[in-house]
Amino acid sequence: MLRRFFQWFFRNRETGVITIAQWPNLILWIVIFAAALLWLFPFAGQANFALKIVLRGGLIIWGFDEILRGVNPWRRCLGAAVVAYQIMVLQP
Predict the structure, then answer these.
(1) Global pTM value
(2) Cα 56 from Cα 84, distance rounded (Å)
């Protein structure tokens, strides 16, 4: 029964293979680039603020995209977890 659950949870609905991770799409590449810039060059002021918006906004967009178009339940849960975390860490 556990094996059947894992097959259902991780099986790609389009190709039939087990899919845990995928090559990043454009949104995730932008998030990775923004994170790298923040890490390599800790900007101050408006540049830092703008990169953080790109980073967090991109993760939220990517998460919603996974929720809507994820290839299996694992990817959809991953997207939901990313969105939930990004909303939880928003500072007023």
Answers:
(1) 0.89
(2) 12
Please state, in angstroms and rounded to a whole number, the distance separating the CA atoms of residues 20 and 70: 11
Provide the mean pLDDT of the chain: 93
Left (φ > 0), alpha (ψ -120 to 50) or beta: where does 83 sit? alpha
Structure tokens at 77: 């849960």
What CA–CA distance (Å, rounded) separates 41 from 47? 10
Query: What is the Cα–Cα distance from 87 to 81, expressed in whole angstroms?
Result: 10
Q: For the beta carbon of residue 64, count every other beta carbon within 10 angstroms.
A: 15
Beta carbons within 10 angstroms of residue 83's beta carbon: 18
Tens of pLDDT, residue by residue over 22-56, are 999 999 999 999 999 999 988 788 989 999 999 99
Dihedral angle at the C-alpha atoms of 50, 52, 53, 59, nearest 10 degrees? Answer: 150
